[in-house]
Design brief:
heterotrimer, A alpha+beta (about 150), B alpha+beta (about 270), C alpha+beta (about 700), A: about 150 residues, alpha+beta, Ubiquitin-like (UB roll), DNA polymerase, domain 1, 2 domains, 7 helices, about 40% helix, globular, B: about 270 residues, Uridine Diphospho-n-acetylenolpyruvylglucosamine Reductase, domain 3, Enolase-like, domain 1, 5-stranded antiparallel sheet, 3-stranded parallel sheet
Chain lengths: ~150, ~270, ~700
């Protein structure tokens, strides 16, 4: 089947019941998509599918047919990423880093829907992304900063 | 030889479903946990006939492949269902999980199914041979056993278009997001000119099947608030007897206490 | 604020943000064999027979017979096997590894292997155990006299549960044999611990083993000792296969079979005279699990901390670690102290209530001061800033007035409480470990182009030492940070500066690097290669510590903290909302404010989780049931509000710029603050953590009777 991966149309000929997470990491070598649990609980494997935040471990390839998928590798060249990058850097939000690609994509989805989110909206937007290092303070602050600094981008 | 199928239409899906040994796949959020290697899926998540949300004179009609996010965003969906859908998992799970999948899983913990019980919703089951409409409570036959035949798919959920505005919903999980419910309660009550015209309650996650006892709720229907207060003790005692929670990791005592507390609060909020 | 405290962009920010950072599971799979472990399904049994099916070409099985060296993983003692010997001692003990080119096929082989066990009676709770792994006792003063003369003697028992580190990146290791050497790289905290263990298991000279840390997605102690076991297994497998072997745990096996925080049971007997505590007689028991691993050191720290921040002149402490046929418990942030700090804080809180005093008011009468003796008859050499920190926290959250308000009888649906924990964390290795065992060495290599490389074995697992070490060197040498190199440690290239544990890295190794930098600056020669080496020197003020008698300075200094947590309990559901979490933390000078605050916030939330929603249950055979993120509940972003974390700086003269150990502190005292708040909200006593929704509901039901 075909799908659009980070802006390029690709043809996938493998098993339709394989997980998108495994295919992105093993076949397309997109190792920025992390595997934390394989149960849809931790969000480390988050990607954006058809403009929605999803857990790639929960998606069988058949479901991804004709969809548009963006992983961190596709997102990191955007202006929006640059704003989030500076915001996260300013508060030191990346500690061990394992949750971060997922958090970034979750941040994008929050701001795409609500360009000026409240703290409550940010916390709900990242509620499916577990972090064990930060206690979430710095990540929430980073998204707020990005909302201010990225005026007009979202 | 593992063959999975992507169906473009409902007819195509039903033909495959009748012919092949496949597992219908809506959003995948239950199926993909510990999936076997050699499983054969029938992908129905994008079939247009299963993605509609509409209303007619009698029902609000929800396509089985609608995701929880789509349900939350639709202006046609009653707030009581949105309340439950918005507490399922986290944003990513809601973007994928479907109401049909929530039903098909056969679990008493299914958050949206609790609402279907309390609203006395119906399910449309279709096969290549025809269709039937089943009250949701008749779909659940016991512990993880459902009435779905091997050639059937759930195509639509029908919620009766009654006044659902006065609702009570509480999900009790282990944390505020990404939580499977340990106890869930939904209540509906309509009061017109001081008289109770409708009362419905349902309890989720405490037994093999969601608990709905419309004959107990009927005790209050037709009564004034004062009359309802008079038979409140009897009403609660009837539910006290009817709710026998399963003990598991979470004790039956805890589940029972929470059920009775929430039921009592539902009554209090309505002046009873 | 010291200039160095000003936050900079973390040195490893960019690769982690962009997804280019390579964790062990991200390395290319070409030419690498997959390994999977077969675990014991019995808690205690003799291994009668292991029936291996016929193996396809290219697939092999590795067990105790394939170990070239000793079948021992060197941790503190050497009882942990690489692969099970004649018996298995817990569900999850690795029996063998299957290895091959296709992962699914390797799993298939594991599924087909039949193990014949002869079941033996297991011991699954420490109360039933007859095997004492470690037994320590120490004391001071005259507790007999104090108890005789007491106005009242209090006695209570306290329990704490297991806790899972729940690092987001599961454990993983890759071993590559080449040119007569074995290179092992993976997710780990202590390259030299792994190095020593692998060399012993392979039976080779140390020079033939190379250990490299990969970018590590969280450790919290869970990757302090456990990686040595996995590394030995992978190295032995790679040695047999003659090819690289890779093992990456999935979340379930990581949660079921890797080390956890020791559960504890403590008995406190406290003598009170004239409204003050005069003596404590403390008995502490930890559940070590099936093998010793780091238990002796965890127990030591736990009993040393058992009298808390209080000046208790008459003290007796007895600690035992018991063997049970469960997963061996090991390091987790706090390392034995969270257990006893919970107990002593609750004990003081309960005594206060009995005396009709507010908890804080009673505790404050006993807080140690500079010059006082420690529990082990050492000295608090430096100022104890707790009184000021208490005021800071009180100001931030109105603790005292809320405590009065919430202590009144409450009757509504929602009940509130506020609790406060006072605590310290002894910075660095217990006793004379730094001087006698670790003997840390750190180096700087200046290149002819003027760039400088930090050569130390300490690992950044998120706590920020890539940034803080670099800032120290940059500050002393006047170099911009991008001229300083600090790569993930490789034992071929870095000296043994000691493990990344015990909140020691910044305080000990950071100081070595500062001195080396000063030395380099003084002797800088342009255009030349220069290597400067610094060796650990124990500060002069330390009162030597004798481990046999537990006398002397157990730690050179202490990081101090005050934590307050405000809760609201819904009496209909037993669920608790955290309304606020407030902490004042003294870790000396922060080498980077964002880095330190991030550590305080992360540790604080782990402590809250430990006290509330994190729970590990086991089945009748002791097998851990909470083996996924679905069942082992850690807080999400919706479960906690913005935590208010303040830094109070009491400089430590022997730490770099006044910094002292920071990594573990914030977790240690949060549980007591949470439990006290819950007691206040529900008008009851809790002597255990976690305090769950079920516990809350039970106490409400009891109150109704």
């Amino acid at each position: 089947m075909k799908f659009i991966l980070n802006g390029t149309e690709v043809t996938y000929t493998g098993a339709l019941n394989a997980s998108l997470l495994d295919v992105l990491r093993d076949e397309y070598r997109l190792t920025g998509v992390k595997c934390g649990c394989k149960e849809g609980e931790c969000g480390a494997c988050s990607v954006i599918m058809d403009d929605r935040l999803v857990n790639s471990c929960m998606i069988a390839m058949g479901q991804a047919a004709d969809s548009t998928i963006i992983s961190i590798e596709g997102y990191r060249d955007t202006d929006r990423y640059a704003v989030l990058d500076r915001a996260y850097a300013s508060v030191g939000a990346a500690q061990c880093g394992f949750c971060i690609p997922g958090m970034i994509l979750a941040s994008e989805c929050i701001l795409a829907k609500t360009p000026h989110p409240s703290e409550e909206q940010i916390r709900e937007g990242i509620s499916g992304n577990l972090c064990r290092c930060t206690g979430y303070n710095a990540i929430v602050t980073a998204v707020s900063i990005a909302a201010k600094e990225g005026e007009g981008l979202w | 030889m593992v063959n999975s199928y992507i169906a473009a239409s409902l007819k195509e899906a039903l033909d495959i479903r009748a012919r092949e040994d496949v597992i219908p796949y809506g959003g995948g959020t239950d199926l993909m946990i510990k999936a076997a290697d050699d499983v054969s899926y029938l992908f129905i998540g994008k079939i247009p006939e299963l993605k509609q949300i509409s209303e007619d004179n009698e029902y609000i009609r929800i396509g089985a492949a609608c995701t929880f996010t789509e349900i939350i965003e639709s202006p046609l969906i009653p707030p009581v269902l949105k309340a439950a859908a918005s507490q399922i998992g986290g944003p990513a799970i809601r973007n994928l999980g479907t109401i049909g999948g929530n039903i098909a899983n056969g679990s008493p913990k299914a958050d949206s199914v609790l609402i279907l019980f309390v609203t006395d919703a119906m399910l449309r089951l279709v096969s290549d041979k025809g269709e039937r409409i089943l009250p949701v409570k008749d779909y659940y036959l016991g512990k993880k056993k459902t009435a779905l035949a091997g050639d059937e798919l759930i195509s639509e959920i029908l919620i009766p278009r009654v006044d659902l505005s006065n609702y009570y919903y509480k999900k009790v999980g282990a944390r505020k997001a990404q939580a499977i419910s340990r106890v869930a309660f939904a209540g509906l009550m309509n009061i017109t000119n001081g008289r109770i015209t409708h009362c419905a309650t349902a309890f989720g996650s405490v037994s093999d099947v969601i608990i709905r006892r419309d004959y107990i709720d009927a005790m209050l229907i037709g009564r004034t608030i004062e009359e309802a207060k008079a038979c409140k003790a009897e009403y609660l005692a009837a539910f006290d007897e009817a709710i026998v929670p399963i003990s598991g990791r979470i004790s039956a005592e805890y589940r029972k206490s929470v059920c009775m507390n929430l039921l009592g609060d539902f009554l209090s909020e309505n002046g009873i | 604020m010291e200039m160095i405290s000003q936050s900079v962009t973390r040195q490893d920010h960019a690769p982690k943000m962009s997804g280019t950072a390579l964790y062990v599971a991200d390395y290319p799979l070409e030419g690498v064999l997959f390994g999977k472990l077969l675990y014991s399904s019995r808690p205690k049994a003799r291994l009668v027979q292991v029936k291996i099916p016929a193996l396809p070409d290219g697939y092999l099985v590795v067990d105790k017979n394939d170990i070239p060296g000793e079948n021992r993983v060197h941790i503190v003692q050497d009882d942990t096997p690489v692969f099970a010997r004649e018996t298995v001692e817990y569900i999850g003990e690795p029996i063998l590894m299957a290895v091959g080119p296709v992962e699914k096929e390797v799993q298939h082989i594991i599924d087909q292997i039949e193990v014949v066990y002869e079941d033996l009676p297991p011991i699954l709770s420490m109360g039933n155990s007859d095997t004492v792994f470690f037994n320590y006792e120490y004391g001071k003063g005259d507790i007999v006299k104090a108890f005789v003369e007491a106005d009242k003697v209090y006695m209570e028992e306290f329990d704490t549960g297991r806790q899972e580190q729940a690092y987001l990146e599961p454990q993983g290791m890759i071993a590559e044999p080449h040119d007569g050497r074995m290179t092992v790289h993976g997710s780990l905290q202590c390259p030299y611990y792994v190095h020593g263990a692998v060399a012993k298991a392979l039976g080779v000279e140390p020079g033939r083993v190379q250990i490299i840390q990969d970018v590590t997605g969280g450790g919290f102690g869970g990757k302090e000792a456990f990686p040595s076991i996995l590394a030995c297994q992978v190295a032995v497998a790679a040695n047999k296969a003659g090819q690289p072997v890779r093992v990456i745990f999935d979340r379930r096996e990581d949660m079921e079979f890797t080390s956890k925080r020791h559960p504890s049971h403590s008995i406190y007997k406290v003598a009170v005279k004239d409204g003050k505590v005069t003596a404590m007689d403390i008995d502490v028991m930890y559940d070590a699990g099936a093998y010793t691993t780091l238990t002796p050191v965890v127990l030591q720290r736990g009993i040393i901390c058992s009298s808390g921040v209080y000046n208790v002149e008459n003290l007796n402490v007895h600690g035992r670690a018991m063997k049970t046929n469960t997963v061996p418990n090991s390091a987790f942030r706090g390392f034995g102290a969270p257990q006893t700090f919970f107990a002593v804080e609750m004990m003081m809180d309960h005594i206060a209530k009995d005396l009709g005093l507010a908890s804080l008011e009673f505790k404050q009468k006993h807080i140690v001061r500079q010059g006082d003796k420690t529990s082990t008859s050492g000295i608090y050499h430096f100022p104890v800033p707790l009184p000021d920190m208490i005021e800071e926290v009180d100001k931030a959250c109105d603790y005292r007035s809320k405590q009065i308000e919430y202590s009144k009888p409450q009757s509504g649906r929602y009940r509130r409480g506020i609790g406060m924990g006072l605590y310290f964390h002894g910075a660095g290795f217990t006793g004379s470990g730094e001087r006698d065992f670790i003997k840390a060495v750190a180096k700087l290599h200046k290149y002819p182009d003027g760039s400088v490389e930090i050569l130390a074995a300490n690992t950044d697992m998120g706590q920020g030492i890539k940034t803080t070490f670099t800032k120290i060197v940059g500050q002393e040498l006047g170099l911009p940070l991008d001229r300083i190199i600090f790569s993930n440690p490789d034992t071929d290239r870095v000296p043994d500066s000691g493990p990344t544990v015990a909140s020691r890295s910044l305080m000990i190794v950071g100081e070595l690097l500062r001195r080396a930098s000063i030395n380099l600056r003084a002797n800088w020669i342009d255009g030349e290669n220069q290597i400067i080496e610094e060796h650990f020197k124990e500060p002069d003020f330390i009162v030597p510590f004798h481990i046999e008698s537990f006398e002397g300075d157990a730690y050179p200094t202490y990081a101090w903290a005050v934590a307050a947590i405000e809760v609201e309990v819904d009496t209909l559901t037993g669920l608790t909302d955290i309304l606020g979490a407030f902490g004042s933390f003294d870790v000396g000078t922060p080498i980077d404010t964002n880095v330190v605050l991030g550590q305080m916030q992360g540790g604080f939330l782990q402590g809250i989780g430990y006290a509330s929603i994190e729970q590990i249950g086991a089945d009748a055979n002791g097998r851990i049931r909470n083996n996924s993120f679905t069942d082992y509940i850690i807080p999400t972003a919706m479960d906690v509000p913005n935590m208010v974390t303040m830094l109070h700086v009491e400089k430590y003269p022997d730490g770099p710029y006044g910094a002292k150990g920071a990594g573990e502190l914030a977790l240690v005292g949060a549980p007591a603050a949470y439990a006290e708040a819950m007691e206040m909200a529900l008008g009851t006593k809790f002597n255990h953590i976690p305090v769950t929704a079920e516990d809350a509901m039970k106490s409400l039901e009891v109150a109704k009777l």
